[in-house]
Write a structure and sequence with these properties.
Helices cover 52% and strands 13% of the residues. It contains 11 helices and 5 strands. It has helices at 11-22, 36-46, 62-71, 90-98, 110-121, 129-139, 146-151, 157-167, 172-179, 183-197, 202-211, and strands at residues 2-7, 27-33, 50-54, 79-84, 102-105. The chain has a 5-stranded parallel sheet, with helices on both faces. β1, α1 and β2 form a beta-alpha-beta unit. α2 (36-46) packs parallel to α3 (62-71), α8 (157-167) crosses α11 and α9 crosses α10 (183-197). Keywords: DNA-binding, Phosphoprotein, Transcription, Transcription regulation.
């Protein structure tokens, strides 16, 4: 059962998402919040698998709520998905930097919304390669960050290769095929890279890969 926390300051939006989720036998809405502070408290209380958090909320906004969830070891199993009205913008990139697993635009069709919840619950990033390119082209500096680049020295050559492939949108199975290794070994490379880079999930690996200069938009 996928346990979901809904956080949005608009009751109508929350009720609409809840109505969709309540129809699914494998998804359960465990709590609703109207601001980021309440979302954080309820996340600690209920330990959901997914926290669907509006990017702009009163008291504590969605980005700060995401940052606090990501920083709390007790909430390591909570995957944050940012909800936005506007699609790609700097709020989205800041949310990914803060620890979000991805983002959804509120006018998403119901089937895609439900699929996205299940994808996030598996621990996969909600960042298609085309979206990644747009995001990076708009908001990530084209000059590699020296500090970010230095942390890549912690990685082995194979781990760096795996991170670059994650940034290009490849799944673990596709990484395995590209590197001619088993899917389990590919997953191990990715997980070790995440641990060394202190990345919460694959979405943060994508940001690190581009900001460090390991991958550039023209490579994607």
């Amino acid at each position: 059962m996928i346990r979901v926390l809904l956080a949005d300051d608009q009751p109508l939006i929350r009720s609409g998402f809840r109505a969709l989720l309540d129809l699914e036998s494998d998804i359960q809405v465990v709590a609703e919040a109207s601001d980021g502070a309440e979302a954080l408290a309820l996340a600690r209380e209920h330990l959901p698998d997914i926290a669907l958090i509006d990017v702009q909320m009163p008291v504590v906004d969605g980005i700060e709520a995401t940052r606090r969830i990501a920083a709390d070891p007790a909430l390591a199993g909570v995957h944050v998905v940012i909800l936005t009205n506007y699609g790609l913008d700097e709020y989205v990139l800041n949310a990914l930097r803060a620890g979000a697993a991805g983002f959804l635009v509120k006018d998403i069709v119901p089937e895609d919304f439900l699929h996205a919840v299940r994808v996030a619950a598996r621990g996969d990033a909600l960042l298609a390669p085309s979206i990644t390119r747009q995001l990076i082209n708009r908001y990530v500096t084209q000059s590699p960050d020296i500090g970010t680049r230095a942390v890549l020295e912690e990685l082995t050559n194979r781990e760096r290769e795996a991170v670059a492939l994650v940034a290009r949108g490849l799944s673990n199975d596709e990484i395995a095929a590209h590197m001619v290794i088993s899917p389990l070994t590919a997953k191990t490379h990715v997980n070790r890279a995440m641990a060394k880079l202190h990345a919460r999930d694959r979405a943060q690996l994508v940001v690190i890969a581009y900001e460090s200069g390991l991958v550039s938009p023209r490579d994607s």
